[in-house]
Amino acid sequence: MISRDQELWQAAAAGDRAAFHALVDQHAPTLFRTAMALCQSRSDAEDLCQETFIAAFRGLKGFRGGSSFKTWLTSILMRRAATMYRKQRYARQTISLHRDNGGNGHSGGDRDLFAEQLSVPSATTTVDQRLDLLEVIRSLAPDFHQVLVLREIDGMSYQEIADTLGIPRGTVESRLFRARAELRKRLSGY
Amino acid sequence: MSQCNCQSLLGTYHDRELDRLASREVELHVQDCELCAAELAFMRGISARIADIQPPEITLAELARIHDAIDQAAEDQPGSLSLMPTMRFLGALAASILIISAVWLLDLRARPEVVGPSTATLALAPEWEHIAVTLHADPRLTIVDDSLFSPRFALAVEWMLDSLTPLEPKPWVKPS
């Protein structure tokens, strides 16, 4: 049985632009959420989504349907995010693990709201000292960051993560284990 | 924090990626191991926090901009595609010219250096001049060698040598 995605990407590959727009409408919300977890700002996430969909549009004829369309899109997104990360590595702002009530150093209403929702009380239970969990996750090495986002935010299975990142399933397991160990280490200091 | 051998399985257990039998073993182990219980609680805490988040939705304006960007890319694509074969052809042509030129230059360098005037110049020159400029051996020796030159040529060469010889000629040294 042909899925709706398959129907749409086959039509899009045959030159039906409306079909591709329908695919964008279907996958943009999920992709944007993943992009928000990977990027420093909302505008970066939007750029990342745009680049991903344009790359998918251009490479549509090369997609053979070996994985799901969502997995394929996410793999493009991850590669683009890695490129963006490398570009921004030297220009990245210093990440502060402490957030005082003033919340200085951050901009963007939605992002602040998202960060606020991700914040957790510190291990020392000091009420006014809160950690921005998302920032801590972002501060991990890109390999760890990616698997955590795909697992915890996208809810992908190990096999889907492996397909998305083009790595063996065992590597996904070990990266997740090390990522969580690193996360625990960083969070335990606060 | 010290490690327990079972800890590497905890993440897989937490993510529900273990088979039934292994899951049961981990469950039993966690009941007795405080370290693993704490680790599992940590993982569950983080996952719960993340699951509770209301992620920012993409706005209609952002979605519209993505659609516009795709339309723009689609508009640009046909032009760029039609230019591609031409660009490839020009690139291949340039590369061919470069390779041929490089081979020709290498071949030119490998050839022995041509001494003396060109063949065309020699064809127009008088016979004595042709002999004079192409003679590699000692011309004075060849003059007396009748087997090589006719007397007429020998006289011509002698006349030429007389007129070309400097006022104070240096002694000729036979090349080694």
What this model shows, in words?
The complex is a heterodimer of chains A (about 190) and B (about 180). Chain A is mostly helical and about 190 residues long. Chain A has 2 domains: about 5-90, RNA polymerase sigma factor, region 2, helix turn helix motif (Rna Polymerase Sigma Factor, Chain: A, Orthogonal Bundle), CATH 1.10.1740.10; about 100-190, Winged helix-like DNA-binding domain superfamily/Winged helix DNA-binding domain (Arc Repressor Mutant, subunit A, Orthogonal Bundle), CATH 1.10.10.10. Helix content of chain A is about 65%, strand content about 5%. Chain A has helices at about 5-15, 15-40, 40-60, 70-90, 110-120, 135-140, 140-155, 160-165, 170-190, and strands at about 100, 120, 130. In chain A, strands 1-3-2 form a 3-stranded antiparallel β-sheet. Residues about 95-110 and about 120-130 of chain A have low confidence and may be disordered. Chain B is an all-alpha fold and about 180 residues long. Among the domains of chain B are: about 5-50, no CATH class; about 120-165, no CATH class. In chain B, α1 (about 5-15) packs parallel to α3. Chain B is elongated. The mean pLDDT of chain B is about 75. At the A-B interface, α2, α3, α5, α7 and α9 of A face α1, α3 and α4 of B.
